[in-house]
Amino acid sequence: MPRRRIGFWYRFAAVICKPPLVVLIKRDWRGMEHIPAEGGFITVVNHNSHVDPFAYAHYQYNTGRVPRFLAKSGLFKKGFVGAAMRGTGQIPVYRESTDALSAFRAAIDAVERGECVAFYPEGTLTRDPNGWPMTGKTGAARVALQTKCPVIPVAQWGANELLPPYAKKPNLFPRKTHRVLAGPPVDLSRFYDREMTPEVLKEATEVIMAAITRRLEEIRGEKAPKTPYDPRRERIEQRRRTQAQTHGKQTEGQSK
């Protein structure tokens, strides 16, 4: 199946975005040979800075296989940004609405047309205190198992040093290096003949996240925590701690 043409809007976006990226960050990019030359596929990428979608898009643009990102629907509505999002073929995500599943249908359609869809499986910036990938959401696994397409794990590091997660001001000096490492396709074949239950999707997602994390360990030269940070588990633990503190204060008050 042929590759998607880059098109006017992607080339126009590249003309605008590439010069400041080249000035602001150095590049250590590896693994481009794992990006398929033809046919539909998905990339699964860790997310640790508001800058990294631009830095990663630069990496993949240079492979000749432009990515289609899943992005908040509000970005598509008006103005130049909306025109650019529509023109480059990005996929709107309608959160908490009846159209929430339309993004996954659009992603499946794009892969089946021979395009690349880039997923941030964590769904948001990582909240791991040391920047490691969190537990992932199941959207990428759902598309992968539905289409049986190649799933390319990609790790990146460095954009977060330019603009740390949730920071408002960039740290420009010294000049940072954006490191990217793509790996061979994740083997999900053992899930293909199984019913796509929540348990299967969760297990496949864990395999995907482990592949991303291994790439990031190689980039950073460190070992990731054995148990990925889980925002849901952390919220539950925080609620328990709050309830315990409240109960302790009530008990202390009654004893006086």
TrEMBL record:
Segments carrying the region annotation (Disordered) are 219-256
Q: State the UniProt keywords alphabetically.
A: Acyltransferase, Transferase
Query: Which portions of the chain have biased composition (kind: Polar residues)?
Result: 243-256
> What highest taxon heads this organism's lineage?
Bacteria
Q: What are the recorded GO MF terms, alphabetically? A: acyltransferase activity
Pfam families registered for this protein in UniProt: Acyltransferase
Domain Phospholipid/glycerol acyltransferase: residue ranges: 41-159
List the residue ranges forming a coiled coil, or say none.
Answer: none
> Basic and acidic residues composition bias: which ranges?
219-240
Q: What is this protein called?
A: 1-acyl-sn-glycerol-3-phosphate acyltransferase
Tell me what organism the protein belongs to. Answer: Streptomyces musisoli
User: Which lineage ranks, top first, belong to the organism behind this chain?
Assistant: Bacteria, Bacillati, Actinomycetota, Actinomycetes, Kitasatosporales
